[in-house]
Amino acid sequence: MALIQWGIVSLLLILAIEPTSSSRSIIQMPTEKQNLGKGGLDMYCESWKLTVETNNAGNWGQMPEKCAEYVVAYMTGEQYLSDSEAVTDNSLEYATSLVSTRECDAWVFDVDETLLGNVLYFVDTPGNGSMPDMDEWIELAKAPALPASLRLYKKLQALGFTIFLLTGRSEIHRNATETNLRNVGYSDWKRLILRGDADQGKYASVYKSEKRKEIEDEGYIIRGNSGDQWSDLLGFAVAKRSFKLPNPLYYVQ
């Protein structure tokens, strides 16, 4: 998971993972809300989340410490699911409006926080003990499907789109990733693309652009692209339309 800046939280703790280190530092949540009442704090954190989702925050590293509980509540609550459903509805409105034979129409999906949700990894639940390394978590193949994305995935298949999965996970996780995806309902993708040896160390925006260009070079038209990071969507060989899912947990360059 190269070049990732994590802003990870538990219900009472913030977990900060530096991009070039596997070390973890635990910061105790403040007992005071820094002179902000609950309503004011939520408003502040909602505004901060807006800057993240619109990419106004740019290359941000860690969420504001005072917003940890807010982000956990959002990611584990109904609003996150509702926001994801809205993205799916917009995606399907666009997909069904296309007039095409669809023989060469492709749709690209990211995996983490797009098809699969890793909130169970990021939130340290009681009794969980020490949190496993992200690579260890991936190998467990226990990440659930994001319901809205599974609905979109199935509808796009029914419409005749060719599905490509393009993830920042490394090639060593291919078996676990395929197992996880199939276990939660995804199937019949054209290709699952993971980082090979030559892709290690590249910014996600560069790596994913290169892989999208390879898809286009095969004769496909990338009609749509779904991801939770701006680096999933921007760069070159971009899709005709791109759709960003919400993710205030971390930022990937």
TrEMBL record:
Gene3D superfamilies: HAD superfamily/HAD-like (3.40.50.1000). Residues 1-22 form the signal peptide. InterPro entries: Acid_phosphat_B-like, APS1/VSP, HAD-like_sf, HAD_sf. Pfam families: Acid_phosphat_B (PF03767). Keywords: Glycoprotein, Signal. Belongs to the APS1/VSP family. This is Acid phosphatase.
